[in-house]
Amino acid sequence: CFAALFNIPPEHQKLVVDSVVWAMKHTERNIADTGLEILQELLTNVGKTPNVAQGFYQQYLLTLIQDVFAVMTDRLHKSGFRMHASLLRTMFHLVQMNQVTVPLFDPATASSPGQTNALFVKEHISTLLLTSFPNLTRTQVIKFVEGMMDVNMDLPTFKSHLRDFLIQLKEFSVEDNSGLFSEEAEQEARQREEMIRQQRSAVPGMLKPSEIDNDL
Question: What is the pTM (predicted TM-score) of this model?
Answer without folding.
Answer: 0.77
